[in-house]
Amino acid sequence: MQQAKTTILSLPTGEFVHPGTRACTGCGLSIAYRVGLKALGPDTMLIVPPSCLTVLQGLFPVASTKLPCLNVTFASTAAAATGILATLKAQGNTHTTVAAWAGDGGTSDIGLQALSGAAERGDNFIYFCYDNEGYMNTGVQRSGTTPIGAITANTPFKGKLQQKKDVPAIMAAHHLSYVAACSAAYPLDLYDKILKCRDLPGTKYFHIHIPCPPGWGYDPRYGIKIGRLAVETGYYDLYEVVNGEFRLTAASEKLVEKRKLVPVREYFRSQSRFKVLTEEQIADIQKQIDDKWEGYYKKSD
Amino acid sequence: MHIIEDGNAAAALGVRLCRPQVIAAYPITPQTPVTEKLSEYVEEGSLSAQYIPVESEHSALAVCIAASSAGARVFTATSANGLLYMHEQVQWAAGARLPIVMCVVNRAVGAPWNIWNDQQDSISQRDTGWIQMYCADHQQILDTVIKAYWLAEKVSIPIMVCYDGYILSHTFMPFDLPEAGKVDAFLPPFQPDYALNPREPANLNTVTLPDVRVDVHGELAHGYMEIRYLLQEDLRLALAAAAEMERRFAGVFGRTADPYLEPYRCDDADFVAVGLGSLTYQLRVSVDALRAEGIRVGVMGVRFYRPFPDEAIANALKGKKSVIVFEKALSYGYEGALASDLKSALYEYLGGTGSLPTVQNFIAGIGGREIHTQELTDTLRAATQARVSKEPVWIGLKL
Amino acid sequence: MGTRHYRRKTSHSEHGPGDGGRTGSWRVERPVFDRNLCIPCKRNKEACFICWLFCPEIVISRTIPPTVDLEYCKGCGICAEECPTKAITMVDEAKFAEEDKE
Ligand SMILES: Cc1ncc(C[n+]2csc(CCOP(=O)(O)OP(=O)(O)O)c2C)c(N)n1
Ligand code: SF4
Ligand code: SF4
Ligand code: SF4
Question: How far apart are CA B120 and CA B129, in angstroms?
Fold first, then answer.
């Protein structure tokens, strides 16, 4: 059965985050988190490792999130989810949702082992990796998911030389019931995907692209535009993998019909972190994107 | 009921009697049989618990930390590098005040690789804010596990139950397996002050500031320093709680013991050997031999190492000529940690009284080097004749 | 007065607004709404609310007209940028400071 698409008007108005957080002005994480929690609902327990989200969630003794949350060590996020689930099971609680929210560094690098372990065990929780493409909390260092060409505090002049690690693909290789790629610029897509996966078994993995003004170098007001540009250029795709079936969603799905991508150059030129990317490098990346999309077009024919 | 089993089985049987709800573990020799046994109990249905085969020790303790935060009684066990790999989580569990019980089956740490017994692993975790209890035989392993749950939950501090790898973990000895009803009478179900739940949301262990700060009710809440101070304060108070633990245990099981120390022929002794774990039982043989030679020597096991029972130890050693500390670990660059701790307790309570015993330190059995009883006897005899050295002396060294 | 009798011994936070203080004081520009351009205002019925959806600070009300809690609005300008009818303009706070003085 196809689930009805949520609209702005049908999105629940209840909030789980208080205003007045310590997140930066124009933080993309704030948007994704707010909408994500709406989808998860009040019967949820959260796990958060050190990251921007720790700061957003408030410093002792004040919390900005209205849900119970366990802060855990950097490498242990998914294992902590396992621990909470084990207790819920022991208590006979089958209704509470367990959701972990970690940054890209906390997921793709230091937390990957624990995440892989929990996914392999099939522990029934939702893991959210919010991907602002760097270790932002410690001052914008490169992470496994920082894209090629991005200047960070420790790739200061040449930009990152390596490719972005494809974490959703790694997670899909664990044969999960649900893997999704989302973006803070498409909150309703995120919302619907969370509703869709909730009753699926085992570990569910969400990757969320998060525009981040200080980390990416742009005027905060353009955050949503830039997140959208990443999708409209075909650079970052919105999709879901349901029991192994890959499907583009939302704006990415529409791009297949349109068959017209915005040149990726526009995306790169919207942020100062890519200022060292040369025209040749951009052309190279454009070629990779075009090849990827040729594949999508063929599949849809 | 008396049974004959190995030390790991004694631990597993003790754990089963305590009815943990969540068990997480990762294999490492010589700990493996404990957790294998527990997985058997769970699969056969003789223990109703969630058994989580995690992908690392870091995660084993992560599972325990989270499960305990959500209100479950939990268990894990490890050894050597497994414990070292947990180190970050070990600190975390103490700061979060979670009553986790963990068996540490003592083993040497790398490098180089060595799978045999010494106590460098647990000693290296001395300063993490955990309670550390050491066992010298199988009955103590089983009993200590049961006591540890009571105490950990009483004071909201995690406990390591330490016992020597192979020497205890893989040897068979008779011990009394208590009835479940008695354990239930001794150990009520775990009732945490707070367990994570959506009806009463709380955000636990987030960034906590250097200074105090007002909470949402307008009350002044702790800073990081107050929270850490309270851990230290409660650890010191746990010494008194341990005495209560022994009284209650004796009341239910009829086995009495001193909560902190296990002296043997110490009363009239001029010289007392001190150590942790099974080595102190081996030393009893040396003590008997030297007594036969007319040397007034005794041996005292330290069962409760952290919090350090400084006053009890100083009282027990008052009037002795020399204290001879045997250790299977050391604080590299100085001396055995127990020797340092003893010196500080003696200085505090006996300093200036004119009856401060000398302290000598011997390091033995590192990386499983066999400790011959004759060697212990000879060392002890020499130490009663004159102070052997200011520096720790390694016995059995073949340099 | 110290914290000796505080009811917890651990870092145990309860939720409430404004953990980061009055984050509105970070603001350089203030969003100003033009009701004549705002869709729900014009139609006098629930519509659009794109600004509400994207506001990172959750300070825009989903009401007709939409209002902003200036205590916490950080002035990011996302609402102004995303409004399909350009009903929101970001105005220099300095201007309001002068007004406040008057
Ligand atoms: C074991 C450990 N290593 C390093 C750190 C320091 N640290 C805290 S937050 C952080 C960056 C987090 O980056 P990411 O997961 O990408 O989240 P973001 O800050 O970008 O939101 C780092 C490196 C830590 N807390 N623990
Ligand atoms: S650094 Fe980026 S992700 Fe972190 S709080 Fe600031 S804007 Fe948000
Ligand atoms: S986005 Fe613009 S038009 Fe839509 S509700 Fe907000 S102010 Fe009105
Ligand atoms: S979107 Fe930004 S500028 Fe607009 S109300 Fe929210 S915080 Fe203020």
Answer: 17
